[in-house]
Amino acid sequence: MPIMGVAKFERFFRLAAGVDVDKSDLKRYQDFVYDKLYDLLLIGQAHAKSNGRDVLEPQDLPITKGLQERIHEFRDLDEEIELAPILEYLAARPPLVVELSAETQDRLVLIVGGLSVALAKTFKILDPSITTPLSGHWEVATQIFDLIM
Predict the structure, then answer these.
(1) What is the DSSP track for 11-77?
(2) Distance of alpha carbon 103 from its chain centroid, rounded?
(3) Is 108 helix (H, G, I), strand (E, B) or coil?
């Protein structure tokens, strides 16, 4: 599976929430992003199908107010996460029944960015004094997202 550069990954989390992550956190991060993005796409697929469409449009995705705000924060950070590795990883999982529109595909990077900002900020909410998330922090953050997504 392709991975983004470790330095870029570390810089992103520092800018987003003042959290230091390292290479050992990269796999956890990728799993988190994949799982949450796939969850959003599955619900979006259900919305598209219930509206009689075989193409998933951006309005089908369940983007909450909080996630939308994190997407805006991600834009402000001016960080880029390459779309291709995420889509390649996503393609390795069970395929969706619907196609993604070009506009939906274009928004996936922003959604991943918003999810990433939300994850970084979640670490700080769990422990305001945290500088480096431990395995337990990753587990609790993932459990929280699983409850609401």
Answers:
(1) HHHHHHHS----GGGHHHHHHHHHHHHHHHHHHHHHHHHHTT-SEE-GGGS---HHHHHHHHHHHHH
(2) 17
(3) helix
Structure tokens, 43:
């619900």
With 0-12 CB in 10 A as exposed, 13-18 as middle and 19+ as buried, what is 57? middle
Map out the domains of the chain with their CATH numbers: 6-148 (1.10.20.10)
Task: Please write the tens of the pLDDT for every residue from 87-129.
Answer: 667 656 778 999 999 999 889 988 998 999 999 999 999 999 9
Closest CA to 66 of 18, 107, 115: 115
Residue with tokens 């799982």, as numbered in its chain: 35
